[in-house]
Amino acid sequence: MYLSWIRGSLLLGFVFILAFVVMKPIGVSTEYVVIDGIYEYQQHHDLIHKDANSSSGYSSNNAYLNKSGGKLAEHIIHPKYYGMVFVLSIILGGLIGRLTSKKASKSMKQIPEFHTQTFGNKVFLRYLFVFVGGMLMLIGARLAGGCTSGHMMSGIMQTSISGYIFALVVFVVAVPTSILIYRRKGN
Amino acid sequence: MQLEIIEAIALGTLFGFALYKIGAADPDKLIGMLKLEDMHLAKTILGGIAIATITLFVGVLLGLIPMEHFSIKGIYWGVIFGAILFGLGWGLSGFCPGTGMAGLGAGRIDAYFYFIGGLVGTFIFASVYAGLTDTFLYTTLFSGVGTIVETGKATALFSSSWSPVIAIAIGIILFFIGYKLPKKFR
Fold it and tell me: Are the beta carbons of B73 and A160 separated by less than 8 Å?
């Protein structure tokens, strides 16, 4: 039901090269910061203010939103920019992918098999794991300056050394993590 | 609508579609790869990076690539420590920031909890960032060398005009590794 590895490679490689040529290398995790900021700005309007001295025209009392001339602060005020629309469109792409796949039932299992095999049908535990996982990953991605798309895929395709290091460390940590957590019961 | 927005919708949708079609939005496939039991996705990712690398640098040699689009991320201790946190979360969840979004579109409820967790994560990071900037985490490594071959955006290990050939060779090697990678190790 999923593409063969060679077809998948061609499709994935094509998307990354197309995005590079048309606009810029693909990256996703920055937009999580902006989505946070949009919500926060609605609660506290003093988060961001106009600033003629900053290159984006905006600055923030948060040091992270303020870096690179307040670019993130500007994105929060004007969220209809390339990166945000790109990331939100991924949701639409996932939906189309599912609707155009004949045997989507297996991939639509709400609790993955590896979880059931180790923890049984405990939905709450699955939701807790992905919540904690998402939290760790986005802290990590922001500290590292990118995620699987930005560092690993886009980075390595440009022969960026940080991309190689990021990929290597991620796999060295993730492989034993998965093997240890998701041991089959009885094995 | 601005051209940039139309491009963003087209490319983002295509990216999400591709992630779904290769199985990357399916945590069973991702954890299967990380448990070394189903290497299908690893072969696809390696092949995808290889094809992108080869195409990119053949394009560079032919003068078809807008060189200003290159964007090279720095190397500092934070890349390594960030990767450790990222690896822990990946092994636990089976989603990535991008594949989680594709999973959301495919109707996965766990992807929703992943997304919320991610937003909490970036919130925590943005809150503590000011205190991290002066620490060793932001110390540059490898005296700032950013890429293997010349891109015009960072110091390169090989900086001659024929250096794109090295990138193409790396791409071919990556593809070969993907091709040779067994379907499973365990």
Answer: yes
Q: Which residue of B has its CA nearest to A87?
A: B12
In tens digits, chain B (186 residues) has pLDDT values of 699 999 999 999 999 999 999 999 999 999 999 999 999 999 999 999 999 999 999 999 999 999 999 999 999 999 999 999 999 999 999 999 999 999 999 999 999 999 999 999 999 999 999 999 999 999 999 887 899 999 988 999 998 888 999 999 999 999 999 999 999 998
Contact B56/A20, CB-based, under 8 Å? yes
- Burial tier of A151 (Cβ tally within 10 Å: 0-12, 13-18, 19+): buried
Contact (CB, 8 A) for B105 and A92: yes
Q: Does A160 touch chain B (CB under 8 A)?
A: yes
On chain A, the residues whose CB falls within 8 A of the CB of B45 are: 12, 152-153
Tell me which chain A residues have a C-beta less than 8 angstroms from the C-beta of B81. Answer: 140, 143-144
User: What whole-number distance in Å separates Cα of residue B18 and Cα of residue B44?
Assistant: 11
Q: Check pLDDT > 90 for residue A68.
A: no
pLDDT tens, position by position, B66-92 = 999 999 999 999 999 999 999 999 999
d(CA A52, CA B172): 49
3-state secondary structure chain B: CCHHHHHHHHHHHHHHHHHHHCCCCCHHHHHHHHCCCCCHHHHHHHHHHHHHHHHHHHHHHHCCCCHHHCCCCCCEHHHHHHHHHHHHHHHHHCCCHHHHHHHHHCCCHHHHHHHHHHHHHHHHHHHHHHHHCCCHHHCECHHHEEEEECCCCCEEEECCCCCHHHHHHHHHHHHHHHHHCCCCCC
Between residues 84 and 103 of chain A, which touch chain B (CB distance below 8 Å)?
84-98, 101
Strands B145-149 and B155-158: parallel
- Tokens 């991605």 belong to A141
CB-based contact, A179 to chain B, within 8 Å: yes
Q: Cβ distance B85 to A173 under 8 Å?
A: no
